[in-house]
Design brief:
Elements lengths: L1 H11 L10 E7 L7 H8 L3 E3 L11 E3 L10 E4 L7 H10 L11 E3 L5 E3 L8 E9 L2 E6 L14 E4 L2 E2 L12 E2 L12 E6 L20 E2 L16 H5 L5 H6 L2 H4 L12 E4 L6 E7 L9 H16 L5 E7 L3 E9 L3 H7 L13 H14 L8 E6 L10 H7 L2 E7 L5 H10 L3 E4 L7 H4 L4
Parallel strand pairs: 1-2, 1-12, 2-4, 10-11, 12-14, 15-16, 15-18, 18-19, 19-20
Antiparallel strand pairs: 3-4, 5-6, 7-8, 7-9, 11-13, 16-17
InterPro entries: CLCA_N, CLCR, VWF_A, vWFA_dom_sf
Organism: Apodemus speciosus (Large Japanese field mouse)
Pfam families: CLCA (PF08434), VWA_2 (PF13519)
């Protein structure tokens, strides 16, 4: 699988003298646009977004990086076929280094009086050629020198040799091969990557990546001070004052805070935060306090809007009501048409009475997921409640360890802090809907 193969690149790469510990990334896979406040909140915290190309036909990854040298970038956009480029883009994102190629200025005049391809290092060998293709066949010829620029002509390209003795640099071209057997290669370890698709959250099991020894391996190192091409017209040189990528990386907090390890590193952790089909439980408060300020009607109005307008086809939805105890009102059903949506509407509450036990509602949702054959990892709980429950601290750890994401829509201003913390600790959304008569906060929570 692609994620596992990408982890191999992370592990085999020379990225530290002792390993980098506990890296975290939130990854959003699927369409780029969020359709609601909940979607947008997850998308905004994503470090990596896996989605189709922004421009049709341009199946190329990139990092949104409008930051300074050494600063963390905004996010990585990877297309589905991302195995070979994850580490390259990861270095952009986490360590603030830049590309060591230049499509606009692919060649430069070196102090050696030679025309060099823009790259790091100059130890990467190759040929400079003009390639012309027509009717399915291509011909190549040597590049000519432009008499004005003293550089190669416009269509000249540098073609690296397929097999190299040089192992750097990942920021130039990570897909070419080296023929030397790797020495003891420091690795990133405890790499925890949270991966998400458009609509729901689930956690993958930990993937163990074995140490591999190759006689033919991908480029595995960053340029260091000793082999850095200071003259090359790269963005790395321009943004980082001619420092090598490794000089920048080794001065980062990740590197400063790491310690060498003896023996192989622990396996990395990969968690998938979202997959294509959501598994959602509406957990609705029907305690006596919902009779105040027309909260019950407001909650039902929002829930109806969610079921009829927001939840996507192929999603799984169930419903729990709770007061001092909880009841499963609808087991999970898959939404395929308006028929299933309408099937859920009669299960909305019509009255409210009794005490409040949010933990009972949460635990009933966990049971509902298990009844449907799902683990709690990656499921979503949409909790609509006034949150007035001093006993909610009793299940905080249980919620956090479940892997479920709790989105809390507070009906009124008096929610217990523990309830709010459920959404914060699980990466969910928290929204306050006031008791004002004209308030549309609950509807707005699900709006575009």
């Amino acid at each position: 699988m692609q994620v596992r193969q990408s982890a191999g690149l992370l592990e085999d790469s020379r990225v530290s003298d002792g390993g980098l510990q506990e890296q975290w990334a939130y990854v959003k896979a699927g369409s780029m646009g969020g359709s609601s406040l909940i979607d947008t909140a997850v998308e905004n915290q994503a470090d990596v977004k896996v989605a189709p190309p922004v421009l049709k036909g341009r199946d190329e990854p990139y990092t949104r990086q409008f930051t300074q040298c050494g600063e963390k970038a905004e996010y990585i956009h990877l297309t589905p076929d991302f195995r070979k480029v994850l580490l390259h883009e990861w270095a952009h994102l986490c360590w603030g280094v830049f590309d060591e190629y230049n499509e606009d200025q692919p060649f430069y005049s070196a102090s050696s009086k030679r025309i060099e391809a823009t790259r790091c290092t100059t130890g990467i060998t190759g040929v400079n050629r003009v390639q012309t293709c027509q009717g399915g066949s291509c011909i190549t010829r040597s590049c000519r020198t432009n008499s004005t620029t003293k550089l190669y002509e416009k269509d000249c390209q540098f073609f690296p040799d397929k097999v190299q003795s040089e192992k750097a640099s990942i920021m130039f071209m990570q897909s070419i091969d080296s023929v030397s057997k790797p020495a003891t290669v420091p690795r990133i370890y405890n790499q925890r990557i949270m991966m998400t698709t458009t609509k729901m959250m689930t956690t993958m099991t930990m993937i163990e990546i074995k140490v591999r020894n190759y006689t033919l391996l991908d480029v595995t190192e960053f340029c260091r001070k000793e082999n850095h091409s200071r003259e090359a017209l790269t963005l790395q040189n321009m943004k980082c004052n001619y420092r090598s990528t490794w000089e920048v990386i080794s001065s980062s907090e990740d590197f400063k805070n790491s310690t060498p390890m003896e023996g192989p590193p622990p396996p990395p952790f990969f968690s998938l935060l979202r997959i294509g089909e959501r598994i959602v439980c509406l957990v609705l408060d029907v305690s006596g306090s919902l009779t105040s300020y027309n909260r019950l009607d407001q909650m039902n109005q929002a829930a109806k809007y969610f079921l009829s307008q927001i939840i996507e086809n192929r999603s799984w939805v169930g419903m729990v009501h709770f007061e001092s105890q909880a009841t499963i009102k609808s087991e999970l059903i898959q939404i395929n048409s308006d028929m299933e949506r309408n099937q859920l509407l009669p299960t909305l509450p019509t009255s409210a009475d009794g005490g409040t036990s949010i933990c009972s509602g949460i635990r009933a949702a966990f049971q509902l997921f298990k009844n449907g054959g799902f683990q709690t990892d990656g499921t979503e709980i949409l909790l609509l409640s006034d949150g007035e429950d001093s006993t909610a601290t009793g299940c905080i750890d249980e919620v956090k360890d479940s892997g479920a994401v709790v989105h809390f829509i507070a009906l009124g201003p008096s929610a217990d802090l523990a309830v709010t913390n459920m959404s914060i600790l699980t990466g969910g959304t928290h929204l306050l809907a006031t008791d004002e008569a004209q308030n549309n906060g609950l509807i707005d929570a699900f709006g575009p």
